[in-house]
Amino acid sequence: MALAVVNREPGSDPIATGAPIWRTCLREVTFADDPADFEQAGVDDRPHPLIEGEAYRLLLEILCGLQSPMLGETQVMGQFKVFLSSVEREHGWLNRLGQRLLADAREIRTKYLQGLGSRSYGSAVRRYLDGCAHVVLIGTGKLANEVLPFLGDDGRSVDQWGRTAEPPSSVTYHLLDAVDTFAGTTQAAALVIAAPVSSDLIERVASCYPNLSCLIDLRGEMGYAPLRVHAPIVTLQDLFARMSAMHGQATRHVDAARAEIASRSRRYELRDELRPFGWDDLCA
User: Fold this and answer.
1) Residue 127 has pLDDT above 60, yes or no
2) Structural domain that includes position 181
């Protein structure tokens, strides 16, 4: 086996039939246990895979949040775990690799990347809620569940909108399918979008809260129509930019983490060199 990965922007054309692909809002990582699997692409646009140690290093940097606009963010590890759980049995080698990557990433995060400030979407969103007594959250998935505990800080009340018929017990819950029958409220609120819903549906929810102080849109740039709401809009890119401005103080810790990642990547690349001819070399 020779690990090979291709890291590209989301929405790229497939480059290897049947290859496992880890998709996030920022990237698509295609995996193979043989670099030759990527030679199916055309000559002119053939991707250049990273192989063995270089591939392992990239994956570790991603899992440690060092390839994210929000340096050191934690959401990416959860996304990778979900991806591993979906990998088919025929790619069992990827699950073994994934567990090694997760173990290395956890150790590096614990040793170098803790205490660097806001490193989750929830803590970053909370910075925009000063003075806000009520928050409206659209979404019930993984991102929404990560953000939700931060929204109720400082005694804020929370309305959550979703499609599930089983509402969470800790918030006031509304069904998106019934948004047009909601009576609305004049209570001032901030609106947080943590689900891949259409701009039209967001505008219909927003119309139920005419006194919006701001709208925080975590959907990213995925071809959604521009939002037409009477409130300042904070995009995912705005959130990343604010976090980037806080990263200077973390440089020493990040440099140490990158050095550790490079060391572990070399260790991965040399993993088979202790016994290059198999167990038979012990009797040579």
Assistant:
1) yes
2) 121-243
